[in-house]
Design a protein that fits this description.
It is a single chain. With 80 residues, this protein is mainly α. 64% of the residues lie in helices and 0% in strands. The termini are far apart.
Length: 80
């Protein structure tokens, strides 16, 4: 999967929890342009929601959480 530099920027900001208006302001884009980039991300990542974008980006290595080293969170430990 090949993302443009701008799509990668939008992906990172989506993963950080910003909404379209916040992303548009941060990158100096129109909201409609951000919506188009998010739509392209959905197509490329085969997702239907922003949380699925985050999940897929984490699983594929397109996004990582700074400082997180794969330690299980407490609820995962109880499930095992």
């Amino acid at each position: 999967m090949k993302l443009t530099a701008r799509q990668s920027e939008v992906l990172e900001l989506v993963c950080e929890g910003l909404d379209n208006a916040q992303i548009a302001k941060r990158l100096g884009l129109a909201i409609g342009t951000v919506k188009e980039h998010v739509s392209v991300l959905h197509g490329e990542l085969h997702t239907r929601s922003r949380i699925q974008i985050l999940r897929t980006a984490l699983l594929t290595g397109l996004y990582s959480i700074p400082g997180y080293q794969g330690r299980p969170v407490p609820w995962q430990e109880r499930v095992r």
